[in-house]
């Protein structure tokens, strides 16, 4: 298995994962491409893929920020997804382990994430990994 940091050339692959993760959204590919470039250019963001035998099996994206809530540097994992056909084979753990390594290297106090209510299988994974339910997530769309 190989972790590979995302590059501009990987956009189509990343976009495919983004669409699979949030199937209830409609995406303007040109807008997402701009966001993707901004993520790659921002030193506080990360995006990477997991490959097995040369084939992509997962994607993860997140950001680092300071928060009073967790008393300092925090890692927010905003996207983590593995291919449907290879779930429960340890790929999600590999992605999360690498995100954790990045967070530890930045001296983060915690990793946080949110997950859509219907994603019960993902919730089980997070709890097995060691995450605790600690909040509800709310959104207020502005556009």
From TrEMBL:
GO terms for molecular function: N-acetyltransferase activity. It comes from the Bacteria. CDD domains: NAT_SF. It holds the Pfam family Acetyltransf_1. InterPro entries: Acyl_CoA_acyltransferase, Diverse_Substrate_AcTransf, GNAT_dom. Residues 1-143 form the N-acetyltransferase domain. Keywords: Acyltransferase, Transferase. This is Acetyltransferase. The lineage of its organism: Bacteria, Bacillati, Bacillota, Clostridia, Eubacteriales.
């Amino acid at each position: 298995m190989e972790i590979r940091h995302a590059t501009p050339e990987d956009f189509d692959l990343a976009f495919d994962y983004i669409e699979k993760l949030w199937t209830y959204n409609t995406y303007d590919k040109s807008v997402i491409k701009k966001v993707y470039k901004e993520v790659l250019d921002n030193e506080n963001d990360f995006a990477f893929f997991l490959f097995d035998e040369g084939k992509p099996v997962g994607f993860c994206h997140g950001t680092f920020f300071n928060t009073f809530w967790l008393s300092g540097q925090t890692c927010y994992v905003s996207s983590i997804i593995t291919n449907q056909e290879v779930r429960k084979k340890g790929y999600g753990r590999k992605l999360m382990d690498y995100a954790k390594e990045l967070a530890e290297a930045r001296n983060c106090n915690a990793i946080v994430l949110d997950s859509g209510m219907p994603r019960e299988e993902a919730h089980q994974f997070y709890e097995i990994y060691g995450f605790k339910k600690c909040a509800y997530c709310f959104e207020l769309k502005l556009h």
